[in-house]
Write a structure and sequence with these properties.
heterodimer, A: alpha+beta, Aldehyde Oxidoreductase, domain 4, 5-stranded mixed beta sheet, 18 helices, globular, B: alpha+beta, Ubiquitin-like (UB roll), DNA polymerase, domain 1
Chain lengths: ~750, ~200
């Protein structure tokens, strides 16, 4: 199926008691709570794997003068030490998969310089410390701020780095009310709980990777290209994945190194990155500098808006954080400008992290909107309502469905927004209290996917696709979709995913997973329904698939009977079509946060938070809510604590572990709720659903930052909002208050 | 340039050579009792309890998230008390009763905490989950024994297990999917049942 026209009535419609949407418990839940779900590094039954350990560069820029592996090679248990001097040949970089141990040049701190393979983990780790590398080091470039002069326009990726409409400069200059502010966001790390891990095993010229990867088909293709093999010779298997958030969209260095070493020693090799290596050797989200300019009339109607973003990339790369992309679609204004620039720095590889673009873009833009509302004395929701566009303001096409205003209104009602006072007006003992809100918007793409289903003579349906579940609930929603389409309970659906041996699927990323993979499965099931009706000579008009049987006319036949002794198979696929360009595809929502700021210390504590979202048809009310809440808490981290501190002297992350890079912990997370407004998006996909994996983080941190301003009258434009940044403003304000009294 | 060049490298880089007085690692015979079953092992003396469970006994339910005691994914119960199994050597636990997530269910019947995690969706990717569950079991025993926490107002009294108490006591277990509200709901729910 190609999405060229809106979807009409489907078998999923008009079934209020249907499986889809119900808060079904995760079907992989039992395996996960009993510890029996095997993640990549835990795959058993491989013959005698050896253990690998990565040796990282200790400089960020320069070259390897010499590398002495003698001591490491002689260490107990060591089988092999791989360096640039003996690494097997590799092709060029493919997508974000980089060839490893290429030559002597060092581009970033933590770049792998050697790979030690030994009989045990302890031996490999000890021997890795014996690899003696001499460097010719040069001073690294590690500060984005210092490199702005050499920033350039990157190559267009999925979108053009620049956009404009009308005459921004002229309209901004003429606007009666102007705002010109610059926000900065620090490098952030995915910090998924399962480190990158791979077990690579060769059989002749074919290799299988048990690996932690979100997009298996892409990984297969890129890795095959790198190795000079046809894609069918490379198989990626990821049955269970301990979180990704973008860090596992590509095969990371540990995967490439394991494959090369396993080939060299003729034996499977397993390797996991250490948590410290995750910060340098795996990718992270770049820091950004973002300038937002808003020009409006005194009623808050925007005449001009501009959003410019600078980010950094490792040498040789042009990946850029698309911070301003969402700004192109969010608010009306006749005169507009967005611009992305990058500077190449000696920093570890940057990549997509949960809601690339929107997550940090809305940290800046949604706060700028709050600043404008404050300046005008208009309620922040009202300001947004006044700038609600009739169509996508830059693409000039309608939105599929856009319920931003209902989300804000419903959120205001549920949260008690009317209790929000003027900035700096609410106090409770030593705590200053404040409320803030933000809009949320996230692109809703559809990606090609395929699925195969097989109904066995036992009446069980097997679903196969190279889809992944990174915690999103894919296993469960696929079982629900197939179950409802075929009239089977989830207990009679076997979901087999996470293997490139199965039909190609979108994978998990960019909020496209459920909609894309789920739609392919929907089509496959629809095809199977037709085949079964034909086999049973049943009239399709009034056929109902329910309770393991088909009722048509006055006949009822069980699926097992229709499947016959050999069972029956069907395939299905989904592709984006012309609707992709004819409409603007976004999920929307609104965040509300209440914070307490300690007047003495400047410490910010979140008190409560609410997100109201629209995601088209919700496929599982339980897992959808979990995902939205998880995204919101990711936003809490971005607003209040997450800060990858780059040491400009060495280009290394100072706080490269989970004790020093702070992510939200239990004690940071109070009452948080997420609700969904009813919606169907008939232009998105046949499920009429939208992606939810990233919507929760979009704007979440801005709602907190706006609440902090409402509590304190202090605007911090440098994330995260730690107490050291708030204190000067608090002291100044305290001084002013004292002087006045 | 060589002398100057060195200053761009990271100071404090661990010396390539082991310190002269480091004893050589030894292979130790060891009997570990895990989930009531004895395992006779011969382990490198550097092997952590975590790696012994995962790599030598084949119980991979206990997870390695940071290997430095910072994330809690490796939490197991030793003699009923929760510990980070990455921060302790296997050789220190001869004779101890170790319980891992695989040892909590009674046959087909899940431990109430496990069942509550499913019902309340107290996880997404599932990688921190065994640690959260073992930690919750250990934590509830501590609370029942009257141990106070950082948020306990009266440390001489018996703290009711409020949400704030659960959050504080569970803060050693990170969950990047951020299932925290659901984990708290699951523990609150299960705490009331007969553990």
């Amino acid at each position: 199926m190609e999405m060229n026209q809106p979807i009409g009535q489907t078998p999923l419609d008009g079934r209020p008691d249907g499986l889809v949407g119900r808060p079904v418990d995760r079907i992989d839940g039992r395996l996960k709570v009993t510890g029996l779900a095997p993640y990549a590094y835990e795959t058993q039954a491989l013959r005698n794997p050896a253990y690998g350990f990565i040796v990282e560069a200790r400089i960020a820029r320069g070259g390897i003068r010499s590398i002495d592996t003698a001591a490491a090679r002689l260490a107990p248990g060591v089988i092999h030490v791989m360096t640039h001097e003996n690494v097997p040949a590799q092709g060029e970089r493919r997508e974000q998969v980089w060839p490893q141990l290429q030559g002597t040049e060092i581009r970033f701190f933590g770049q792998p310089v050697a790979f030690v393979v030994a009989e045990t983990f302890e031996q490999a780790r000890a021997a890795a410390a014996l690899v003696a590398v001499q460097y010719d080091a040069q001073p690294p470039k590690a500060s984005l701020k210092d490199a702005l002069g050499e920033a350039y326009k990157p190559k267009p990726a999925q979108t053009d780095p620049d956009s404009q409409a009308g005459d921004f400069e002229g309209a901004f200059g003429a606007a009666p009310v102007q705002l010109d502010v610059t926000y900065t966001t620090p490098p952030q790390v995915h910090a998924q709980m399962e480190p990158h891990a791979t077990i690579a095993a060769w059989d002749g010229d074919k290799v299988v990777l048990q690996t932690a990867n979100q997009m298996l088909n892409r990984g297969q293709k890129s890795l095959a290209g790198l190795l000079g093999l046809p894609p069918e010779n490379v198989r990626l298997v990821s049955r269970y994945i301990g979180g990704g958030f973008g860090s596992k969209l590509q095969v990371q260095p540990e995967g490439v190194l394991a494959v090369l070493a396993a080939k060299a020693i003729g034996r499977p090799v397993k390797v996991a990155m250490t948590r410290q290596q995750e910060f340098h050797c795996a990718s992270h989200r770049t820091g950004t500098i973002q300038r937002v300019r808003l020009g409006a009339d005194r009623d808050g109607r925007l005449s001009a808006l501009a959003h410019e973003s600078w980010s950094d990339a490792t040498p040789g790369d042009q990946f850029f954080e698309t911070s301003a992309n969402v700004t192109r679609s969010l608010y009306a204004a006749p005169h507009r400008l967005t611009r992305h620039r990058i500077a190449n720095l000696n920093v570890p590889v940057t990549s997509a992290m949960r809601a690339p673009g929107e997550a940090v873009g809305q940290l800046a833009f949604e706060c700028a909107m709050d600043e404008l509302a404050e300046q005008l004395g208009i309620d922040p929701i009202e300001l947004r309502v006044r700038n609600e566009p009739a169509e996508d303001p830059e693409k000039k096409v309608p939105f599929t469905v856009r319920q931003l205003v209902p989300c804000m209104r419903e959120g205001a009602r549920l949260f008690g927004w009317d209790k929000r006072g003027d900035a700096g007006s609410r106090r409770e003992g030593r705590f200053m209290l404040g409320m803030g809100m933000s809009a949320a918007a996230r692109l809703n793409p559809l990606m090609p996917s395929a699925a195969r289903v097989r109904l066995g003579p036992d009446g069980y349906l097997t679903v196969r696709m190279a889809m992944t579940d990174i915690g999103t609930g894919t296993y469960t929603i696929l079982a629900q979709i197939a179950g409802e389409m075929m009239g089977l309970p989830v207990e009679r659906i076997r979901v087999e995913i996470g293997d490139t041996a199965y039909p190609m699927a979108a994978g998990s990323g960019g909020s496209f997973g459920a909609g894309s993979a789920g739609s392919a499965l929907y089509v496959a099931c629809d095809n199977l329904r037709q085949a079964l009706l034909k086999a049973g000579d049943l009239r399709p008009d009034d056929a109902v698939f329910a309770d393991g049987a088909v009722r048509a006319g006055n006949r009822t036949v069980t699926l097992a009977e229709l499947a016959g002794r050999d069972g029956m198979e069907a395939a299905g696929e989904i592709k984006p079509g012309s609707l992709k360009e004819r409409y603007s595809h976004y999920s929307f929502g609104a965040h509300f946060a209440e914070v307490a700021v300690d007047a003495d210390t400047g410490e910010v504590r979140l008190r409560r938070m609410l997100g109201v979202f629209t995601g088209g048809r919700i496929l599982n009310a339980k897992t959808a809510r979990s995902q939205a809440i998880g995204g919101m808490i990711f936003g809490v981290g971005a607003a209040l604590m997450e800060d990858g501190v780059l040491d400009p002297r060495y280009g290394s992350f100072v706080n490269r572990d989970l004790a020093e890079y702070h992510v939200p912990a239990h004690a940071d997370v109070p009452e948080i709720e997420a609700v969904f407004l009813p919606e169907r998006d008939d232009k998105a996909n046949p499920l009429k659903s939208k992606g939810l994996g990233e919507l929760g983080i979009c704007g979440a941190g801005a709602a907190l930052a706006n609440a902090v301003y409402n509590a304190t009258c202090v605007r911090v434009r440098d994330y995260p909002l730690t107490l050291d940044k708030l204190l000067p403003g608090l002291e100044e304000r305290e001084g002013r208050v004292q002087r006045r009294s | 340039m060589a002398a100057g060049a060195a200053s761009f490298g990271w100071p404090g880089h661990p010396s390539a050579a082991p310190a002269p007085d480091d004893p050589a690692p030894q292979m130790l015979p060891l009997r570990l009792t895990v989930n009531g079953r004895g395992h006779d092992l011969r382990l490198d003396s550097r092997t952590t309890l975590l790696d012994a469970l995962r790599e030598h006994i084949g119980l991979t339910g206990t997870k390695k998230g940071c290997d430095h005691g910072q994330c809690g994914a490796c939490t197991v119960l030793v003699e009923g008390r929760r510990i980070n199994s990455c921060l302790t050597l296997a050789a220190m636990h001869e004779g101890d009763a170790v319980t891992t997530v695989e040892g909590l269910a009674k046959g087909e019947a899940l431990h109430p905490i496990q069942a509550a995690f499913i019902a309340h969706d107290g996880f997404q990717c599932g990688y921190c989950t065994p640690g959260q569950i073992c930690s919750a079991v250990g934590m509830l025993a501590e609370a029942r024994a009257g141990w106070p926490s950082h948020v306990t107002a009266d440390i001489a009294g018996t703290a009711a297990l409020s949400d704030a108490e659960i959050r504080e006591r569970m803060s050693g277990n990170l969950c990047r999917c951020s299932a925290y509200p659901n984990i708290v709901a699951a523990i609150r729910d299960a705490a009331g049942s007969d553990l």
